[in-house]
Design goal:
By secondary structure, the chain is α/β, with parallel strands linked by helices. Helices cover 49% and strands 8% of the residues. α17 packs antiparallel against α18.
Length: 436
C-alpha cells in the first residue's frame, strides 16, 4: 500500500513515484529534479488514483508546454459518439489533456469512459454537472450538492477539476461598481455569481474549501483554481476584479499545498499583446510559481472564425514568459460548439504556439525536430519532411494536390527548377544548373 496520499505528498517525503519516473523520461530531466519541483508545487502531475488508462504528464513552466482540449455535449449538440471522435483526434494530434465540459444529458458514463480509455489527463468543471446530476435548477442547489458532485468526479477518476473558488460576495459589489464591458464571461464563474446573487450565500467552493481539499487529497485530484473574473475583452484586461481574484487564488494555493493537494492556477482571457508577459510574471509572483493555465490569451477581440490564431499568438508569448499549460481555442470560439475539424485546427494552432515557446525558453530537446526538418529540407527529402511535420497528412495532401512536373519532381510547384535548395545543392557539388 502507498505510504503517501498525493504526488506532492510523496515528493515531500522523498518518494519517487512511477508517475515521476515517466515524466522525467519524457522531459529529459533527472527524476530527482522532477521530485523536487513537485514537492515545491512548481510542477504538477495530474494523476487521479482511479484514472486507470493515464499516461502521466508534468505541467510546469520549465517543462514542455502542455495543451488542453475542451470537449463535451450541450443541449444543442448532444451526440456523445461525436465527442468521442473528437477525443480520439485530439489524442492522435498530441493533446496532453481533455476537459469534459458537458452540460446536457447523462454525463457520468462519458466521463467514466474517458478515465478508463483515454491516456490524456481528464479535467472537468463540477458546477456544470451539478444542475444535471441533481436535476435541480441553480437556485435550488445547496452547498452540499456542489461538494457532492466534486466527490463524484473524484471517484470517477477525474485528474483535475476547475473550481471557481476565488470569487466571493465581495465580488458582486466589485462587478457592479467597476462597470466592466463584459462583466463575467467565465461560464462557471457566472453560475457561482448567479447562485450567490439568488441565495444571498457565500461561494460554496470558497466557504467549504477545506472539505474540497480533503476529497482531492483522498483521490490525488488536482485543483485548477478557476478565474471567474478573467477578461472577456481587451478593455477589461488586468483590471481590479481580475487582479484581486488572482490574489485570492494565491492564498488558496497556499492552503491547498498545506494539504499536499496539487494546484494549477487559471488565467486570462482577452489580453492586449503588450500586457501578456506582465500578466504571466504577476501570476508567478502572487501564486509562488504554481503552474499557470491560460485560455489563449486572445490578443484581439475582432477575429471570430479565426480565434485559434489570435489565441496562438497570445499563447506563444504567454508560454515564453511562464505559462505552463495552454487551453486551445478553436475557430468556433464565440460562435458554436466546435466540430471535429474545428478541434483539429484549434489543436494544431495551440501546438505550434506551445512548441515555439518551448524553443524560445530553451526547453530540453525542444528544437531537435526543427533541426531534423532543416536537414530534410536541405536534402529535398520529402518523406523525411512529412515525418517531422506537426500534421504530416495535411502537408502531404497539399503537395500531392499541386504536384510539380516530372522533370523536377524533387522540388515543389512553387519554384520548380528555380528552387533555391536545388540550385545550391548542384552549385556546391559543381553540377550544371539547368533552369530552362
Amino acid at each position: 500500500m502507498n505510504s503517501y496520499t498525493t504526488q506532492m505528498d510523496a515528493a515531500r517525503k522523498g518518494i519517487i513515484t512511477e508517475q515521476m519516473k515517466i515524466v522525467a523520461r519524457k522531459e529529459f530531466r533527472p527524476v530527482e529534479e522532477i521530485r523536487q519541483l513537485v514537492a515545491e508545487g512548481k510542477v504538477v502531475i495530474c494523476a487521479n488514483k482511479n484514472h486507470t488508462s493515464l499516461d502521466p504528464e508534468g505541467i510546469g513552466s520549465m517543462l514542455r508546454t502542455k495543451i488542453n482540449v475542451n470537449l463535451g455535449v450541450s443541449r444543442d449538440c448532444k451526440d456523445y459518439d461525436i465527442e468521442m471522435q473528437k477525443v480520439m483526434k485530439a489524442v492522435e494530434l498530441g493533446a496532453e489533456s481533455i476537459m469534459d465540459l458537458s452540460s446536457h444529458g447523462n454525463t457520468e458514463p462519458f466521463r467514466v469512459k474517458l478515465t478508463t480509455e483515454c491516456p490524456a489527463m481528464i479535467g472537468t468543471v463540477p458546477i456544470y454537472d451539478s444542475v444535471i446530476h441533481h436535476q435541480k435548477d441553480l437556485a435550488e442547489l445547496t452547498a452540499k450538492d456542489f461538494i457532492d458532485v466534486v466527490r463524484l468526479h473524484a471517484e470517477n477518476g477525474v485528474d483535475f477539476v476547475t473550481l471557481h473558488c476565488g470569487i466571493t460576495r465581495k465580488t458582486i459589489e466589485q462587478i457592479r461598481k467597476h462597470k466592466r464591458k463584459m462583466n463575467i464571461v467565465s461560464r462557471g464563474g457566472s453560475l457561482v455569481f448567479a447562485w450567490m446573487s439568488m441565495t444571498g450565500k457565500e461561494n460554496p467552493f470558497y466557504e467549504y474549501f477545506d472539505d474540497i481539499l480533503d476529497i482531492c487529497e483522498e483521490y490525488d485530484m488536482t485543483i485548477s483554481l478557476g478565474d471567474a473574473c478573467r477578461p472577456g475583452c481587451l478593455a477589461d484586461a488586468t483590471d481590479v476584479c481580475q487582479i484581486e481574484e488572482l490574489v485570492r487564488l494565491g492564498e488558496l494555493t497556499k492552503r491547498a499545498w498545506a494539504h499536499n493537494v496539487q494546484v494549477i492556477v487559471e488565467g486570462p482571457g482577452h489580453v492586449p499583446l503588450n500586457q501578456v508577459a506582465a500578466n504571466m510574471q504577476v501570476q508567478q509572483t502572487i501564486c509562488m510559481g504554481a503552474p499557470f493555465y491560460v485560455l489563449g490569451p486572445l490578443v484581439t477581440d475582432i477575429a471570430p472564425g479565426y480565434d485559434h490564431i489570435t489565441a496562438a499568438i497570445g499563447g506563444a508569448v504567454a508560454a515564453m514568459n511562464g505559462a505552463a499549460f495552454l487551453c486551445y481555442v478553436t475557430p468556433a470560439e464565440h460562435l458554436a460548439l466546435p466540430n471535429v475539424d474545428d478541434v483539429k485546427q484549434g489543436i494544431i494552432a495551440s501546438k505550434i504556439a506551445a512548441h515555439a515557446a518551448d524553443i524560445a525558453k530553451g526547453v530540453h530537446h525542444a528544437r531537435d525536430i526543427d533541426d531534423k526538418m532543416g536537414e530534410a529540407r536541405q536534402k529535398l527529402d520529402w518523406e523525411a519532411q512529412y515525418a517531422c511535420a506537426l500534421d504530416p497528412n495535411t502537408a502531404r495532401a497539399i503537395r500531392d494536390s499541386r504536384a510539380p512536373e516530372s522533370d523536377h519532381a524533387d522540388t515543389c510547384s512553387m519554384c520548380g527548377k528555380f528552387c533555391a535548395v536545388r540550385s545550391m545543392n548542384k552549385a556546391l557539388n559543381d553540377e550544371y544548373i539547368d533552369i530552362l
